[in-house]
Amino acid sequence: MFFETNETLILASASSRRKELLGRLGMPFTVHASNAEERPIENGEKPETYASVLSSIKASAIYEDHPKSLIIGADTVVALDGKVYPKPKSVAQAAEFLEELSGRTHSVITGVTILREGAVTHFTSITEVTFRTLDHALIQAYAATGDPLDKAGGYGIQTAGGLLVKEISGDYDNVVGLPIAELADKMRASGLIWLKGDER
Ligand SMILES: Cc1cn([C@H]2C[C@H](O)[C@@H](COP(=O)(O)OP(=O)(O)OP(=O)(O)O)O2)c(=O)[nH]c1=O
C-alpha cells in the first residue's frame, strides 16, 4: 500500500487510462462509469469551466447511488483559440482537428471533481502541448488508425499520437486524462488519504 484511506473510493469514469492512473496511488477503488450526457460547450463558456462542469456531472451521477463514497470525476478537453476540440466523431473529423492543431500550441485541460458526502472540490489542470508541423500524409495515416476516436482533440500522446508532439509544458498525466499527482496532493491535504508515515 502506498496511500491509505478509510473511504470507499469510486472512479466515475469508463476510461481505462484514468483507471491505470488512479491505480498508481495503491488504494483499492471501484469503477462506475456514469452514462451522464456530455453536453456541448455553450457560447462564451470558458473551456476550464466546461471541463470542470462535465467532471462534476459525471461525479454527481454516481453520487446518487453511492452517497457515502468518495467519488472522483474527470473530463479532458483540448482547446485552441477559444475553440474546444472534443472526441472526433469520425476519422475525417479527426484529420480536420489535427490539421488545425498542426504547428501550434494548444491547451489540454482536465477538470477534476472530488465529491464526498455532498462536499465538492473542483480543480483544473492545464498542460500546453505544441504539435510539430505535420504533413498531410502523416495526419491521414494516423487518423486512419482509429486511435483518435476516443480521445479529446483526436490524438493520444501516449500512443502513436505521440509522434505528432514537439513538446509539452505541464503535467503529462493530465494530457492522458487525470493529473494524478495533483489529485493525490488535494486528497492528502484534505485528509481523505494519507501516507503511512503521515501525522493524523
Ligand atoms: C489529448 C488526449 C486525450 N486523451 C483522452 C483522455 C480522456 O479519456 C479522453 C477525453 O474524453 P473524456 O470525456 O474526458 O473521458 P472518457 O470519455 O474517456 O471517459 P469518462 O467520460 O467515462 O470519464 O481523451 C488521451 O488519452 N490522450 C491524449 O493525448
Radius of gyration over C-alpha positions, nearest whole angstrom: 17 Å
Strand residue content: 25-35%
Main sheet? 7 strands, mixed
**Beta-strand segment tally:** 9
* CATH-scheme architecture: Alpha-Beta Complex
Number of domains: 1
Q: Which structural class best describes the helix and strand composition?
A: alpha+beta
- The DSSP helix count reads 6
End-to-end separation: 17 Å
Provide the helix percentage: 25-40%
Low-confidence stretches: none
What number is the mean pLDDT?
95
**Series of H and E elements:** EEHEHEEHEEHEHHE
Which descriptor suits the 3D outline?
globular
Multimer state: single chain
CATH topology: Maf protein
Bound molecules: thymidine-5'-triphosphate
CATH level-1 class: Alpha Beta
Task: Give a concise summary.
The protein is of the alpha+beta class and 200 residues long. It is built from six helices and nine strands. A hairpin with a 2-residue loop joins β6 and β7 (119-131).
Describe this structure in words.
- By secondary structure, this protein is of the alpha+beta class.
- It has a single domain, classed as Maf protein, CATH 3.90.950.
- It contains six helices and nine strands; from the N terminus they run E-E-H-E-H-E-E-H-E-E-H-E-H-H-E.
- The strands form two sheets. Strands 2, 3, 4, 5, 6, 7 and 8 form a seven-stranded mixed β-sheet that branches.
- Helix 3 packs antiparallel against helix 4.
- The longest helix has 17 residues.
- The radius of gyration is 17 Å and the shape is globular.
- The structure holds thymidine-5'-triphosphate.
- The site of thymidine-5'-triphosphate has 24 residues, from helix 1, strand 4 and helix 5.
- Its main location: cytoplasm.
- It is found in: Cytoplasm.
- Keywords: Cytoplasm, Hydrolase, Nucleotide metabolism.
- Pfam families: Maf.
- It catalyses: UTP + H2O = UMP + diphosphate + H(+); dTTP + H2O = dTMP + diphosphate + H(+).
